[in-house]
Amino acid sequence: MDAGERTSCRVAVAVLNWNGAAHLRRFLPSVVAHNLPGDRVVVIDNGSDDESLKVLEASFPEVDVVTLSENLGFAGGYNAGLSIVSERFDAQYVLLLNSDVEVTAGWVDVMVETAERHHWTAVQPKIRAVDRRAEFEYAGAAGGYMDRFGFMFCAGRIFDAFESDMGQYDQERPVFWASGAALMVKRSAWEEVQGLDVDFFAHMEEIDLCWRLRNRGHVVGVATGTHVYHLGGGTLGQSSPRKAELNFRNNLFLLLKNDHRFGIRGRIFFRQLLDGVAALRFLTEGKPDFFRAVIKAHGDFRKLRSRMWEKRMAERKACASASVNHLTDSGRYHGSIIVDYFIRGRKRFSDLPAYLFR
Q: Residue 57 burial by CB count (10 A; 0-12/13-18/19+): exposed, middle or buried?
């Protein structure tokens, strides 16, 4: 390709990699095998110091590679990498794909067709577990939702209760958020909201992205006509105190930045009280590292609170100037998933009262 020349393509499938040579060997062959001529596969290497680049050069010469000099995290890596990708390719959509995802035949076609038929800006496929292939996976399952207190859950996965995919959630529908494990976004919308927020570093940054899109009138949905398989926990395991710290902190970031309704200070305070209860529970369960993770998360939130408040104001201004005629409330659950799950014993998404989704 000549310098400065851009190649048009329908979808740029962007795989972010950091020291994931084993994942590339295991999962990238499915992405290459199911890639169509009108799409491009790009690996964004996030400053790896393992054999990743050698693996790409030796085994995947058809894959485009973007090399970053250091690990910029999930958000920073995608922002920097997709900026370079946009210099090379004039793509209609960008598709963020974790390096530990196995894809299936026709998956991109179904996502594009679903997005265009419903006029959705961002979509995810159904996400199943690699090692339990009939079961929904933690990160996204059949689409993401948010309860009245800002707690996230999925159709097919509430906390640690995983359902098997029996087609029970195959209705194509808008959701509150889509998983960053396999997230396709219109490139124009990605650029409109300036990508991911690097202050999140990792975890929940895709929920922040979806919320910002929603606040500007875009719709996020799930393409239930296809599915992928996700290993999960490739960088930070599910039982990692560091992951817990990021999740608790970033959930507060999400609310302060994107919940533009009146009374946000009260909702943040109440959420912090609930987090305190969770921290005490970790302590009684003999998990002092997780207790400290919650404390550190709240400390980091206080340090960055003023910055997030400034971003809140900037977001409100941007949304006001977007001339949005209608804001969808799809994907919001007007109940408490904590109460439903732990007190009422509602472990399945289908157990939740339908009238509370409105």
A: exposed
Q: 254 is written with which tokens?
A: 């999400």
pLDDT in tens, the chain (358 residues): 454 678 999 999 999 999 999 999 999 999 999 999 999 999 999 999 999 999 999 999 999 999 999 999 899 999 999 999 999 999 999 999 999 999 999 999 999 999 999 999 999 999 999 999 999 999 999 999 999 999 999 999 999 999 999 999 999 999 999 999 999 999 999 999 999 999 998 889 999 999 999 999 999 999 999 999 999 854 444 568 999 999 999 999 999 999 999 999 999 999 999 999 999 999 999 999 999 999 999 999 999 999 999 999 999 999 888 766 556 678 999 999 999 999 999 999 999 999 999 7
Separation of alpha carbons 122 and 120, rounded Å? 6
**Identity at 351, one-letter amino acid code:** D
Residue 338 · residue 347 · CB < 8 Å = no
User: How far apart, in whole angstroms, are the C-alpha atoms of residue 94 and residue 92?
Assistant: 7
- Which is nearest to 191 in space by CA: 109, 85, 114? 85
Asked whether 228 and 130 are in contact (CB, 8 A), the reply is no
Amino acid letter for position 321: S
CA distance 70 to 81: 12
Distance CA 37, CA 10 (A): 9
User: Are the C-beta atoms of residues 278 and 271 closer than 8 Å to each other?
Assistant: no
Length of the chain: 358
| Tokens of residue 214, six digits | 């929603």
In this structure, what DSSP letter does residue 357 have?
Answer: B
